[in-house]
Amino acid sequence: MPDFSTLRIAPDAANPRIARLLLNRPERLNAINHETPRDIRAAVEWANAEPGIHVIVVEGAGKGFCGGYDLNVFGDADIDHPCQQERTPWDPMVDYAYMKRNTEDFMTLWKSAKPTIAKVHGAAVAGGSDIALSCDLLVMAEDARIGYMPTRVWGCPTTAMWTYRLGPTRAKQLMFTGDLIDGRTAAAWGLANEAVPADQLEAAVMKLATRIAGVPSSHLAMHKMVINQVMLTMGLEQSQQMATVFDGITRHNPEGLWFRRYAQENGFKAAVQWRDGGQPIPEGDEARALIREMEARKAQPGA
Question: How far is it, in rounded angstroms, from Cα 301 to Cα 244?
Fold first, then answer.
């Protein structure tokens, strides 16, 4: 079996036509680091090269599916990296290249000739929802949660899947609020194929995967190609290009820089509590003034 630092993949012991792709950083809620997108791509490519595999189940180890990008790496740390450049003038195309590559890696789940099923327990949030919604099908525990909270500040979902999976009205509601919905709501809205009690999630996913696995792989590939082509014709690739550019802007405009400075000064937990608590988020000149105050405090001797 291939060896990865952030996940595991292998045929299911009971049904080798089913590959089990396990996001495997439970100590960090399977948060996305620099290696995760590449590992996902490589794992999907491995499964597609295995003629005996017909369907891929994507799941998370530990308490949840995926908590989004690892904020120890991308959030409150005082470092520069390709998608958060602050010690030099921001280069949007460097940012775009890094995030677009991540998006394309996640989208190997969507482009895979073998159907993919996201099995979601706990949380599939922020970048974790990008991974879940890049899968063809979504089965959730009733009490699981999915959403993209950073739409309130400091993020835009680069896969742009919400509209294509939900329709514009529901997608606008979630993008404008940053709210999470549970598995029951996701199923009622048509985002999830099914929502079941948590103790029945494994059985429900494997029943669906087993049913799919009995179909010839060539038929599955053709049916998926036809359906995906509809989404491409609707403009999916253009939407993702725009969303990935906008994601960089949300992290470098005054509101995004305020959020990062606040997280660096007070910790990301406090920043998230402000973002998600319902109080107005500083913007424009107010955000710029707060940034100056925080940077002045940081520059003081002993800070």
Answer: 38
CA 59 to chain centre: 13
CB 81 within 8 A of CB 148: no
DSSP letters, 114-139, are S-EEEEE-SEEETHHHHHHHHSSEEE
CA pair distance 48, 31, nearest whole angstrom: 25
* Token pair of 176 as six digits: 């404008």
Q: Is 134 exposed, middle or buried (0-12, 13-18, 19+ CB in 10 A)?
A: buried
For 26, 39, 98, 150, 230, the CA distances from 250, given in Å and listed in that order, are: 28, 27, 15, 9, 29
10 Å Cβ neighbour count for 171? 18
CB neighbours of residue 87 within 10 Å: 8
141: Cβ–Cβ under 8 A, 6 or more apart, which residues? 120, 121, 122, 183, 195, 196, 197, 198, 201
3-state secondary structure of 23: strand
Which DSSP symbol is given to 280?
Answer: P
pTM: 0.96
Sequential pLDDT tens for the chain (303 residues): 789 999 999 999 999 999 999 999 999 999 999 999 999 999 999 999 999 999 999 999 999 999 999 987 765 555 556 666 776 788 899 899 999 999 999 999 999 999 999 999 999 999 999 999 999 999 999 999 999 999 999 999 999 999 999 999 999 999 999 999 999 999 999 999 999 999 999 999 999 999 999 999 999 999 999 999 999 999 999 999 999 999 999 999 999 999 988 988 998 889 999 999 988 999 999 999 999 999 899 888 876
- Six-digit token string for 263: 């997280």
